[in-house]
Specification:
With about 220 residues, the chain is an alpha+beta fold. The chain folds into two domains: about 70 residues, YlxR-like (Hypothetical Cytosolic Protein, Chain: A); about 110 residues, 2-Layer Sandwich (60s Ribosomal Protein L30, Chain: A). The chain has seven helices and ten strands. A hairpin with a 6-residue loop joins strand 2 and strand 3. The longest helix is centred in the middle third of the chain and has 22 residues. It is elongated, with a radius of gyration of 19 Å. The relative contact order is 0.18.
């Protein structure tokens, strides 16, 4: 699945109301939009742009519904222009933010990469989350998840392809990784949850996907 398991509590995160469902949710589960000076609806993924925020659940279906029903203009009580490719822009921005969070975690020493190192880590400690390439082989993923089972409900991130993991971490043939508990892991999990809403749920690894030792570089 795209995101499995629970993560750090969002109890400290202020809530905002989704203009589609009308429900109040923690901000980490929402996307903020603002209207720029030219009247164009703009995603504010960092939540820092000036102007009144219009909040939508971090789900592609919710955003598409808000666009189709004109809910942004209704909530803003103003005329605005919605870019045709807004959902794709939001997904690309969320992918960029998750990649940056992973890169920072890696440089901070908060990421364990590779089948062997991840297996060894799981034998000693509980990770904050596991990361499995969406197009990785099912056999390797099954072994990693089996090693993690004694630790209970560990979040599993499977929304990134091996190529996307390679780019984020500056490695080749990335398939398996584990996050050490801490602030870096919390940021990665928060960004992964939002991106998961814009990518197909139930993503599964392929039996013929990348495996340790395959490809032009060392598999991880």
């Amino acid at each position: 699945m795209a995101m499995r398991g629970s993560g750090p509590s969002a109890a400290r995160d202020p809530c905002r109301r989704c203009i589609v469902s009308g429900e109040s949710r923690p901000r980490e589960g929402l996307i903020r939009f603002v209207i720029d000076p030219e009247g164009v609806l703009t995603p504010d993924l960092a939540g820092k742009l000036p102007g009144r925020g219009l909040w939508v659940a971090a789900e592609r279906a919710a955003l598409e519904k808000a666009i189709a029903k004109g809910l942004f203009a209704r909530a803003a009580r103003a005329r605005l222009r919605v870019p045709d490719d807004l959902p794709a822009k939001v997904e690309a921005g969320l992918l960029r933010r998750l990649s940056e969070a992973l890169g920072l975690a890696n440089r901070a020493g908060a990421l364990v990469c590779g089948f062997g190192p991840v297996s060894d880590f799981l034998a000693r400690a509980r990770p904050a989350a596991l990361i499995e390439a969406a197009d990785g082989a099912t056999d390797g993923r099954r072994k990693i998840l089996a090693r993690a089972r004694p630790h209970g409900d560990v979040p599993v991130i499977t929304i990134l392809t091996g190529g996307e993991l390679d780019l984020a971490l500056g490695r080749q043939n990335m398939v398996h990784a584990a996050l050490r508990p801490g602030p870096s892991a919390e940021r990665v999990l928060a960004e992964a949850r939002r991106l998961a809403g814009f990518r197909p749920q139930g993503a599964q690894a392929s039996d013929a996907g990348p495996q340790d030792g395959e490809g032009p570089g060392p598999a991880s």
